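F.,

This is the one I mentioned.
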């Protein structure tokens, strides 16, 4: 019997394994080589919106940065031998292949996050380090993007072993959260299902106070939209100021002016990330129960938000 929730959850269930896969950058000596180079910058070429949002969250978590990080959609003209390039893509497309080969031609240290099959991975330049994909995973992991950036940037100023231990702690936290939000668990003990039931079919805005929670909210909102759930994201202070505008008439997308008398107003629901409580109306706060700004708990909350889309 087909179980929709179990099938869709399968893609998210590899996020902990993707964090460990990114640790291969440390195990294979890539971070040590980059440290010796003393790069001028890290250029993250994000080929899709989820990868871009994940990279932006990584930048927020890694601040203050030891080197500048540029997040772009294509290779900038200034890229050269002193600029490391991480290309993150959930699909294989000719534009990304050209970008990767051009970065290699310019002698940039290059690193690739790509699907397990396709020319982007199979025809990558010989000097490009290709981050492995866990068995049976399809690729397109926001956790892998974040973990790879933590390895590359964190390893510039910290010993490899310290970064390795940090990523293992993150992977364990992600795996623990995945076990807690499996589809078999009901809303009484499943925070992801609780979020999804709270949101219902209403208007949803994901939010947070500060740079890291807001970046987390934007990543989760991007993931929700990619799964067909209409929502948005806005920093909590700005959202509070905008609340009067949300009280304007917002019609159900299925409203038919010829068949229905009055267009119903969809209620607003707010999910506040990395917060133990909230004063915002019609809102639910989500916390890890610990330091919500620590990397392991940020990714714990991330997978909670991703898993809500399958419930």
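My design for it:
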């Amino acid at each position: 019997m087909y179980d929709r929730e179990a099938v869709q959850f399968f893609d998210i269930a590899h996020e902990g394994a993707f964090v460990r896969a990114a640790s291969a950058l440390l195990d294979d000596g890539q971070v040590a080589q980059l440290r010796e180079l003393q790069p001028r910058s890290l250029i993250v070429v994000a080929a899709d919106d989820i990868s871009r949002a994940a990279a932006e969250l990584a930048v927020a978590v890694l601040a203050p940065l030891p080197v500048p990080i540029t997040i772009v959609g294509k290779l900038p003209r200034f890229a050269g031998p002193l600029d490391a390039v991480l290309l993150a893509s959930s699909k294989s497309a000719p534009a990304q292949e050209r970008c990767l080969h051009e970065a290699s031609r310019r002698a940039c240290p290059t690193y690739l996050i790509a699907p397990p099959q396709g020319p982007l991975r199979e025809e990558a330049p010989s000097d490009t380090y290709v981050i492995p994909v866990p068995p049976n995973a399809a690729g397109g992991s926001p956790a892998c993007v974040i973990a790879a950036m933590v390895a590359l940037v964190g390893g510039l100023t910290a010993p490899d072993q310290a970064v390795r231990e940090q990523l293992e702690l993150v992977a364990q936290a992600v795996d623990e959260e995945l076990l807690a939000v499996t589809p078999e668990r009901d809303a009484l003990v499943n925070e992801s299902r609780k979020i999804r039931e709270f949101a219902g079919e209403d208007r949803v805005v994901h939010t947070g106070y500060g740079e890291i929670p807001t970046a987390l909210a934007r990543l989760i909102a991007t993931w929700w939209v990619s799964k067909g759930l209409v929502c948005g994201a806005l920093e909590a202070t700005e959202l509070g100021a905008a609340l009067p505008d949300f009280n304007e008439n917002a019609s159900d997308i299925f409203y038919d002016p010829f068949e229905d008398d009055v267009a119903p107003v969809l209620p607003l629901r707010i999910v506040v990330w990395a917060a133990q409580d909230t004063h915002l109306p019609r809102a639910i706060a989500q916390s890890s129960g610990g330091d919500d700004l620590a990397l392991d708990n940020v990714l714990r909350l991330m997978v909670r938000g991703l898993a809500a889309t399958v419930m």
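The chain has two domains: 4-177, 185-308.

Talk soon.
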